[in-house]
Design brief:
The chain is of the alpha/beta class and about 200 residues long. Helix content is about 35%, strand content about 25%. The protein has a seven-stranded mixed sheet with strand order 3-2-1-4-5-7-6. The longest helix has 17 residues. It is globular and about 45 Å long. The model has no long low-confidence stretch (mean pLDDT about 95).
Length: about 200
């Protein structure tokens, strides 16, 4: 399965959905899987924001065979690629692709605060990522976000996160860095804000 998924990701690179060194991207995705495993989410349901070229979502599905994953991608061509890659790898029973703006989907009753984890590799700035992710995450769940090297968590101010029921739990420092945000309470119904307001007027 992994070889098939890697071939799909190389196709994504050829189509311009993924740039840079594919081997580094794959290793980064493996590190995402390691963090999820260490947090105890290897058998839970989650959302991957801005799934694009399938990183880390396709690798997560391969390495964690008991997770269920909803891949949110607003671009139709990229979503079609993801659907084809999932079908070819036989992962359709545990994954689905939804073509919709994430901040709108987070208000749908089927998805509102229904998930144990949210992953974000290069979705948006910290403020936007936190606001959108909070709408999907149930209390007790966590957001795992790729961080710059040697991050100390300064991108995640407590006051801004508190508006969303979130807090910075820890920053993983290894071969890659990840911020882990924990959700302690239900999110105010106004968040995430729609019509692009999270992008135009970030909370922090």
């Amino acid at each position: 399965m992994m070889e098939r998924l890697q071939e799909s990701i190389r196709k994504a690179q050829a189509w311009g959905f993924v740039g840079g060194d594919i081997d580094l991207h794959l290793d980064h995705s493996h590190a995402f899987a390691e963090v999820l495993q260490s947090l105890g989410f290897a058998q839970e349901s989650g959302v991957d924001l801005g799934s694009g070229g399938g990183l880390p979502s396709l690798i997560l599905l391969s390495e964690l065979p008991s997770i269920n994953l909803t891949l949110v991608e607003v671009m139709i061509k990229r979503a079609s690629f993801l659907e084809a890659a999932i079908d070819e790898a036989g992962l359709a029973a545990r994954a689905r692709v939804i073509v919709r703006r994430a901040e709108e989907l987070a208000h749908d009753s089927e998805h509102r605060e229904r998930y144990s984890f949210v992953t974000a590799r290069s979705f948006a700035s910290p403020a936007i990522t936190a606001e959108v992710a909070a709408g999907f995450l149930r209390p007790g769940g966590k957001v795992i976000v790729s961080e710059p090297p040697e991050s100390t968590g300064g991108r995640w101010p407590s006051d801004g996160l508190g508006l969303l029921g979130l807090s910075l739990s820890q920053v993983y420092q290894g071969r890659y860095s990840f911020a882990v945000l924990s959700k302690s309470q239900a999110c105010d119904r106004r968040y995430p804000r729609r019509a692009g307001k999270a992008w135009k007027q970030p909370l922090f």
